[in-house]
Design a protein that fits this description.
- The complex is a heterodimer.
- Chain A is an alpha+beta fold.
- Chain A folds into 2 domains: 98 residues, Alpha-Beta Plaits (2-Layer Sandwich); 66 residues, no CATH class.
- Helix content of chain A is 43%, strand content 13%.
- In chain A, strands 2-3-1-4 form a 4-stranded antiparallel beta sheet.
- The mean pLDDT of chain A is 89.
- Chain B has a single domain, classed as Formate dehydrogenase/DMSO reductase domain (Formate dehydrogenase/DMSO reductase fold, Up-down Bundle).
- Chain B has 17 helices and no strands.
- The longest helix of chain B has 34 residues.
- The chains are: A alpha+beta, B mainly alpha.
- Chains A and B meet through helix 1, strand 2, helix 2, helix 3 and helix 4 of A and helix 2, helix 7, helix 8, helix 9 and helix 17 of B.
Chain lengths: 189, 477
């Protein structure tokens, strides 16, 4: 039995060109091809690999993600917010004398501030990662390609989008072929 | 049988996977180590039409125990906490023992995933998913106890600081509140971390799906992951951040749990060593659980090429280190009690080893401190019929440790006329057995339907994944 493909259920429509999908044999040839594409001035393209290939971001010229800054900001707010809450509740709004302890103490309140800091950072990391990745997205032109199924198994791919200024069906196909692609196919949306 | 396999493997390949020098070892993934082979091995179980027979047997037993859990909880909620064996002066019993026990087991997953991630220990990729799953499920088991031992669980929200008509607030100096927050944070964290790491692997299962149902189900949870390099970069960074947070969290959770005891005035509880004591004990019991579950799983589900003898060897070494620290803490506790000169403190420790619960005290000493010393020998670390009993005994030992700390410290308090022996009721025992049912039901479902090994991480440590930057990119930043 072949694998299930969502395009079987999709309504037949006038397909528009999404771009070109090229398959490569291994991470090294993918990396070399990515280098070629970037040198040729392409912007709207991406590599697809079954695992994070280290160094590929450098070759693709990816900028560092703002994730750590976002997480740090929220974590700081979480920490200060929890300390402020503890101060407001136990020292300001309704002070209770418990075994003569001071109403405000940084030491015991760290037991609260620490988990809240971690909790807020973890939730932020989780959501921010997927938001920065523009996920979840359940429909993507690449999912219609049978070959692309292997991107999560053992396939290494480069997809060049048709809306790239330098995109030209013939020239780009040739470029990808010369860069060592095993196969190049058109992907339609 | 592993015992026969080691020499065979050595004959076939000339390699010894448990050797100290890396030249005489095979790569981390043995057998046919291609990307597709890794996918095939891991996906074989979720994609199989039928699970091994033993799976059905275990699952049935777990489900029955799970029913016991639901029944006992229902009975307890409708009747009241009087159905437990807790009675003054034994104000705490099975409810808190089992809570601490399960929280402890929950520590290995984070330890393996986070601390070993920070130290770049590549062998962790074979077992991290697995260990994280034990974490998620055991925190869930632990979470049951605080939820029901408040007595009237429908008022559990009183723990939260919310404006109410009485105009009061929770007392933030109360360790019970710290405890609730720490465990709540830990369960949220461990679930998110586990799921976060699983997203790319769920995408693999989606892409291999042969039916519409599987495609949709795995597809929804894979969030449309397509392995984009731009995504991987952000995702990798997110993973490192989560790992870094986890390192701190894993040391903080059991420390916070220990303050439930350490902040009180009871001899045997009121100790400054408690935070590291609880943390080390927790991680120790977590590793014992991972060993106890990894041994059957790698045999049953054909994961021997991904979880090799080397993994078991390394786990055994870590367990040995932790066991030695635990033993040191046991001994230093006795010394502190003796050196304090305080008669109540001295009595509490004398009573622990020579009182009516002497067998609990000695069981904890032997199972946690003495028997795991066998792991100094490589044979004990790599032979399953030796390491499995050691791990199971350590789990039993850790349970007796919690029993000793909690019950023997309070059953003979300051006033001899109120001394009282603690014994659990049938409801206590049913609830404890039932919590195993919950754990194993979830764990068996995980083994059957989810990727048990982190495929994308294992692929990234294969030798062929190593790449060189093109000449002109090397100096670019």
């Amino acid at each position: 039995m072949s694998t299930y493909n969502p395009s079987m259920d999709a309504p037949i429509d006038q397909p528009t060109m999404y771009g070109l999908l090229a398959e490569f044999h291994d991470p090294q040839s993918l990396m070399n091809a990515a280098n070629t594409l970037r040198k040729n001035g392409y912007y709207r393209w991406d590599c697809y690999t079954p695992f994070p290939v280290h160094g590929l971001d450098k070759v693709m010229g990816q900028r560092p993600s703002p994730l750590p800054v976002v997480v740090f900001t929220v974590a700081t707010m979480g920490c200060i917010g929890m300390l402020a809450l503890a101060w407001f509740c136990n020292a300001f709004d309704y002070p209770i004398i418990v075994s003569g302890k001071p109403f405000w103490g940084l030491g015991p309140h760290m037991f609260l501030a620490f988990p809240v800091t971690v909790l807020s950072s973890v939730i932020t990391t989780f959501y921010a990662t997927f938001i920065f990745c523009k996920l979840p997205i359940f429909r993507h032109p690449l999912f219609t390609s049978e070959r692309f199924r292997r991107a999560t198994d053992d396939g290494f791919f480069i997809a060049v989008e048709a809306r790239d200024a330098k995109f030209d069906l013939k020239v780009t196909t040739e470029l990808l072929n010369n860069a060592g692609a095993l196969a190049v196919e058109e992907v339609r949306d | 049988m592993t015992t026969i396999e080691i020499p065979q493997r050595r004959l076939e390949t000339g390699y010894d996977n448990t050797a100290e020098d890396c030249i005489s070892r095979e790569p981390l993934v043995t057998g046919e180590a291609t990307y597709h082979a890794v996918t095939k091995i891991v996906c074989a179980t979720p994609e199989a039409r039928r699970a091994p027979k033993i799976w059905y047997v275990c699952f049935t037993i777990s489900l029955m125990l799970l029913c016991v859990l639901f029944l006992t909880i229902a009975y307890q909620v409708f009747t009241g906490v009087g159905v437990w064996g807790n009675n003054s002066p034994d104000a705490w019993g099975f409810d808190i023992i089992n809570f601490v026990f399960w929280v402890g087991i929950a520590h290995a997953g984070t330890m393996i995933s986070a601390i070993l991630l920070m130290f770049r220990q590549r062998w962790r990729t074979g077992i991290n998913r697995f260990a994280e799953a034990t974490t998620v499920f055991s925190v869930l088991c632990a979470g049951i106890y605080p939820a029901i031992h408040v007595g009237r669980p429908w008022f559990a929200y009183w723990l939260l600081p919310y404006p109410n008509i009485m105009g009061d607030w929770p007392n933030f100096y109360s360790p019970l509140l710290w405890d609730a927050l720490a465990v709540g944070t830990y369960s949220t964290f461990s679930f998110l971390f586990w799921y976060f790491g699983m997203v790319p692997d769920l995408a693999t299962l989606r892409d291999r799906a042969k039916t519409r149902l599987r495609y949709t189900l795995y597809g929804v949870f894979a969030l449309g992951w397509r392995g984009s390099a731009r995504h991987w970069k952000i995702y990798d960074r997110g993973m490192i951040i989560m790992g870094g947070l986890a390192c701190a969290l894993v040391l903080a959770v059991s420390s916070t749990v220990s303050t439930d005891f350490a902040v009180s005035q009871i001899p045997g509880w009121h100790e400054t060593i408690f935070p590291p004591y609880f943390t080390v004990g927790a991680i120790f019991s977590g590793f014992a659980t991972v060993i106890a579950l990894a041994i059957p799983a790698r045999h049953l589900f054909g994961l021997k090429d991904l979880i090799t003898e080397r993994h078991m060897d390394n786990l055994g070494k870590l367990m040995l280190v932790l066991s030695s620290i635990v033993l040191y803490i046991y001994l230093i506790e006795f010394f502190t009690a003796y050196y304090s000169g305080n008669i109540y403190e001295r009595f509490a420790y004398y009573n622990r080893e020579f009182g009516p619960y002497w067998w609990m005290g000695w069981a904890m000493m032997f199972c946690n401190g003495v028997i795991p010393q066998a792991l100094w020998f490589k044979k004990a670390r790599t032979t399953w019929w030796l390491s499995l009993p050691i791990a199971l005994l350590a789990l039993f030992g850790m349970w007796t440790e919690r029993f000793s700390i909690i019950v023997t410290s309070i059953h003979r308090d300051f006033l001899p006329s109120s001394w009282h022996m603690y014994s659990p009721t049938i409801i206590d025992i049913g609830m404890f057995a039932g919590s195993f049912g919950l754990f194993f039901t979830l764990f068996l479902l995980f083994c059957r339907f989810l990727p048990m090994v982190a495929m994308s991480e294992v692929k990234s440590i294969l030798p062929q994944s190593h790449t060189h930057l093109p000449e002109e990119c090397r100096n670019a930043e």
